[in-house]
């Protein structure tokens, strides 16, 4: 049995969970998330807690037990609190802005980078160089943040690029003069 899989999930009072043999639906004040649960797993709901149980202790079952417990836990947190990622733009002339449903980035290219914002995400630009991303779906939030970051990942010599809040960039010395 998985160490993570056997931990209970606490359900906040404003979250509603519906489960039938295959589909799990989690509703909260920030949205609704759905996921398919493999038949090898079962879900038991008792007064404010949720337990993910393993029906057969097969190798495959043990492998996905902890995974699905974490996925369900992320769904519960997402619809009740939301997830947040902050991206910092470091570099001369690097700027960000939001127009309608587009994130517009000036990253030193001869053109602007226009990225369509997915429906589940809210994007807020603070101080032209700080982008705050929020969503109830952790997977889509991380995917969009990685997409934005891929346009200018931080480089080790001057530290320019798009980095996550709190990310430590290992700096290199560069060329030494004669």
Structural description of this entry:
By secondary structure, the protein is α+β, with helices and mostly antiparallel strands. The protein folds into 2 domains: 9-80, Ribosomal protein L6 (Outer Surface Protein A, domain 3), CATH 3.90.930; 83-164, Outer Surface Protein A, domain 3, CATH 3.90.930. Helices cover 19% and strands 39% of the residues. It has 2 helices and 13 strands. Strands 11-12-7-13 form a 4-stranded antiparallel beta sheet, with helices on one face. A 3-stranded antiparallel beta sheet has the order 1-6-5. A 3-stranded antiparallel beta sheet has the order 2-3-4. β3 (23-28) and β4 form a beta hairpin. The chain is elongated. The N and C termini lie far apart (62 Å). The model has no long low-confidence stretch (mean pLDDT 91).
Write the layout of secondary structure elements.
Blueprint: E1 9-10, E2 16-20, E3 23-28, E4 31-36, E5 41-46, E6 49-54, H1 59-80, E7 83-90, E8 95-99, E9 102-106, E10 113-116, E11 121-126, E12 130-135, H2 138-149, E13 161-164
Antiparallel strand pairs: 1-6, 2-3, 3-4, 5-6, 7-12, 7-13, 8-9, 9-10, 11-12
Could you give a quick summary of the protein structure above?
The chain has 178 residues and is an alpha+beta fold.
Keywords:
four-stranded antiparallel β-sheet, 178 residues, 13 strands, three-stranded antiparallel β-sheet, Outer Surface Protein A, domain 3, alpha+beta
Average of the residue pLDDT scores: 91
| Helix and strand pattern | EEEEEEHEEEEEEHE
Strand order of the largest sheet: 11-12-7-13
Portion in strands: 35-45%
Task: Characterize the biggest β-sheet.
Answer: 4 strands, antiparallel
CATH topology of the largest domain: Outer Surface Protein A, domain 3
- The top level CATH class name of the largest domain: Alpha Beta
Quick one: CATH superfamily of the largest domain?
Answer: Ribosomal protein L6
Number of domains: 2
> What does the overall shape look like?
elongated
How far is the N terminus from the C terminus? Answer: 62 Å
- Supply the helix-strand structural class: alpha+beta
* CATH architecture name of the largest domain: Alpha-Beta Complex
What gyration radius follows from the Cα positions, in whole Å?
21 Å
The number of E-state strands comes to: 13
Helix percentage: 10-25%
């Amino acid at each position: 049995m998985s160490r993570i899989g056997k931990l209970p999930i606490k359900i906040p009072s404003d979250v509603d969970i519906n489960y039938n043999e295959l589909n799990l639906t989690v509703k909260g004040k920030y949205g609704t998330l759905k996921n398919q649960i493999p038949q090898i797993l079962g879900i038991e709901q008792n007064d404010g807690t949720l337990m993910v149980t393993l029906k057969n202790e097969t190798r495959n079952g043990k492998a996905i037990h902890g995974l699905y417990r974490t996925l369900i836990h992320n769904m519960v947190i997402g619809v009740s609190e939301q997830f947040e990622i902050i991206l910092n733009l470091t570099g001369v002339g690097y700027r960000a802005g939001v127009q309608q449903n587009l994130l517009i980035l000036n990253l030193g290219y001869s053109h602007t980078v226009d990225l369509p914002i997915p429906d589940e995400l809210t994007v807020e630009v603070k101080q032209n160089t700080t982008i705050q991303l929020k969503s109830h779906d952790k997977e889509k939030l991380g995917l969009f943040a990685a997409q934005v970051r891929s346009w200018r990942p931080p480089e080790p010599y001057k530290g320019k690029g798009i980095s996550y809040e709190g990310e430590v960039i290992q700096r290199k010395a560069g060329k030494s003069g004669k």
